[in-house]
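--- STAGE predict ---
source: upstream dedup step, 1 unique chain passed
mode: sequence only
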Amino acid sequence: MTPNVGPGPADRSETETDAGPVAAKPGESFGTRSYARPLAGALTALTIVAIVIVAIGLFRGSFTKTVPVTVISERAGLVMNPEAKVKLHGAQVGKVDSIDPLPDGKAALHLAIDPAMVRIIPANVNADITSSTVFGAKFVELRTPADPSAQRVRAGQVIEGQHVTVEINTVFQQLVSVLSQIEPVKLNQTLGAIATSLRGRGNKFGQTLVDLDAALAKLNPSLDTLNHELAIAPTVLDAYADVSPDLLKTVSNSTKISDTIVDQDKNLDTLLVSAIGLADVGTEVIGTNRQPLTDVLHLLVPTTDLTNTYHSALNCALEGMIPLATGPGTAQPGVMLLDSFFLGRERYRYPMNLPKVAATGGPQCMDLPAVGFEQRPPYVVTDIGANQAQYGNQGILLNSDGLKQALFGPLDGPPRNSTQVGQPG
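--- STAGE serialize ---
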């Protein structure tokens, strides 16, 4: 055996080293804890969380500015949830932000409209709550009216919902409420009676459906007219309702008239027989004298035409006589005359002053009988062949021939000469 002999002094240099303290490098410190790595890890974790939060916000549109608009609808529907789409002509223009129930049972849908889409949405837009399928999720469909407004939709505007699509659940609910009121035994009897009535009549029933389809096809072009008639029917029915008492009174009076005619049927027969006899006599008289009556009517035509032309003057003259006939009488019986004197006028000369009928102009009323105070009726100048003012007014003219007759008795006048026509005064 080889004894375990430790290293001697000669071998110590190979196995042991007399190591002294190692000096630290500049900027490093041994014995104190470093915070660089934990701080870097915390910042990395915060950065990751911030990125996730920003991504979620961008996805939900939390950082996008929207225009708030409220839609008031009769109901929101069973499958209407926040984040539902808001569409205009099939393109999305916003989303449903929240849905609030109202005390009156209606629903308020708060919409978030994309600001870039506001310029294409008129202020008088309508809103419907609809869905693409019966079981599909609902969305808000904005409908532009026939006469869109020049103004655009604004923030805080309230839009009245027009229509909400009926869900299949609502149909089933209403169907259940209807079926709950029907007795199964009576329903079975009714269906059995219908089946019995239709058994063996399939061809006739089919032909009836074909005829009904043809009738509806003819009625379809008149639907606008029918809708108009139905729209104005309430006004017409209200008018009939207002006059119904008078109509019933008229019907009652008609009944009394009918009873009177029935009671007086014999007198009515006598009247009709007499009327027939009078008609026969009149036919005989008029037929025999037809030509003379025709001639008389033709002769009356000029007279009636002239009377029609001057009817205004005749009416004026008759109206002027009314005050004379209805006015108060005079203090003394008889006729009261008002006389006055005028300066003499030139005598008529022959043959230039012979009268003639040449006046024209139609009827003249001269403002009669209502002539104003201190006014004179207009003077109408006509061509009648005589003009007394032709030679002027000579003033007072003495009747020398009358004076000589009064003084000396009847005397013959001077002889006619070639320079003067007629006898001088």
